[in-house]
Amino acid sequence: MSSHGRPELIKIIELLIACHQIAGKKSMRVSTSGNVDRWLPMLRISIGIIYIWFGSLKFFPGVSPAEDLAKETIRLLTFGLIKPDLSLLLLALWETIAGALLIVGLYQKWVIRVLLVHMCCTFMPLFLLPGLSFTAAPFVLTLVGQYIIKNIVIVSTLLVLDTSSKKKEMSTAKDT
Q1: How far apart are CA 70 and CA 59, in angstroms?
Q2: C-alpha angle 96/99/103, rounded to 5°?
Q3: pTM surpassing 0.85?
Q4: How far apart are CA 72 and CA 131, in angstroms?
Q5: Would you give per-residue pLDDT tens digits along the chain (176 residues)?
Q6: Which residues contact 70 (CB under 8 A, 6 or more apart)?
Q7: Is-cis flag, bond preceding 138, omega within 30?
């Protein structure tokens, strides 16, 4: 980046920080829990659909665009103990079952934790396969890197769902 572009970048960063501070102060004054609660099922179902969709593709060899990435990542994480085709089948099962359970709302706390573990694994290619993830680390992502980084949204959603299920458990425990 040229030195000419730095003042603009600093201004953008300062603006983002100011917006974050303003948003933080507002969120401390205004309770939106009633409004947020009604959208939680939509978040849960949306993530479930994504998992079923992406997981289903992995049942059919050569169909999933993430197939080779998944196989290689699992190979590295398991030190080659799980054969690639079996690893893809297990991943397909994991994703589709978890997605279906999210959609129907069963075992939500367990499913969320399993999916958070899965999400941790999806970030591993950034570290284990940087050549596939970056054209210039750490900021210039390849299409694969972008595919991985977008999972931050899924992680955030899972954390919101996990927090809401804990609050629901606490309120149920108070009622008994």
Answers
A1: 13
A2: 140
A3: no
A4: 13
A5: 444 556 666 666 666 676 666 665 544 444 455 677 888 999 999 999 999 999 999 999 999 999 999 999 999 999 999 999 999 999 999 999 999 999 999 999 999 999 999 999 999 999 999 999 999 988 899 999 999 999 999 999 999 999 887 766 666 666 66
A6: 58, 64, 87, 88, 91
A7: yes
